[in-house]
Design brief:
Strand content: 35-45%
Radius of gyration: 15 Å
Structural class: mainly beta
Number of domains: 1
CATH architecture: Beta Barrel
CATH class: Mainly Beta
Largest sheet: 5 strands, antiparallel
Number of strands: 9
Distance between the termini: 27 Å
Length: 118
Amino acid sequence: MNQEEPQATPTYASIEDFQKIELRLGTVLSVDVVEGADKLYLLKVDFGEATPRQILSGIREFVSPEALLHKQFPFVTNLPPRMLRGHESEGMILAASYAEQLALLNPTTPLPNGTRLR
């Protein structure tokens, strides 16, 4: 991960742009290593839907399975499904990065799975 330079001229998103992105809280039910991929975890995440979603994330070099398991994080949940290493990913975990560091975001109070961020 590279340290990002501040933008000279900000790029603005309209409120309508922001509202298109569905951000929801989900609890990680399981964490598996993706065979043949150095960076990928396969997460099963509960969003309060009938079945958990499968989400692949390239955070393995920064986060242990124990730091993810049974914890709640925000995810983007309305991205089109994407195939990675033969597995379908149905969303994306939110994280912040700076230089060679990565931080996951946690709610300060647990809320019901599927709660939308605003």
